Amino acid sequence: MTIAGEFRDWQLATVAAVRDETPSVRTIAFTLPEWSGHLAGQHVDVRLTAEDGYQAERSYSIASAAEQAAQMEITVERIANGEVSTYLTGELRVGDTLEIRGPIGGYFTWRPSTQAPLMLIAGGSGVVPLMSMLRTRDRSAMRAPAALLYSAGKRDGVIYRVELDRLAAKNDGLPVTYTLTRESPTDWQGETGRVDERMLKTHAIPAELRPVVFVCGPTLFVEAVAEHLLRLGHVESAIKTERFGPTGERS
Question: Based on the domain organization, do 98 and 149 belong to the same domain?
């Protein structure tokens, strides 16, 4: 079944802009001949075709705000020997073209008309679809209370750090909390260590407020966080999860 905001056919997308988010993460903006917007949390398929006809296809979450029809953005993390991520983050240039299909997906999506508080929990590049939700919220006149708990390995690996800090500084009901798992800088004012029940009790929207919760990141991260949330009284049906591969590709 096709839902609103889905476009299934492959089309040729043109790179409109690129920007580095971290030393290993790049955001790519595309223009597409047919694009009427998307839902926050949806993804696209990207297909590369070599001169000899070999094709490689990956799925990436959309990072841009919903209904932003002029351009569509994805954010990609580079890993060694990653044939698609290495090309997208290192070789792709403004004006280049590639094939894109989407937007796709209906389960892991959020609309600004949702009345429930919005709790977002990200591990690494799992922040990408959650950023689409926050950007969508920021553009909306209906801003539900929200919170983001974001786990990264190191400080320089926090994707969208400047923008997230700017959104939090608006003081419109969006606290942003970072935790680092691989370093503890002496001047760091956020959390350190993996997301656990103590951290969720401190920074997550309480279960009694009945938030809708989106958890995205590596499989072990997502499973552990979901278990903590259930023990803290969150309703299973209100917890939506998405698992990411090491490159930011959806799995």
Answer: no
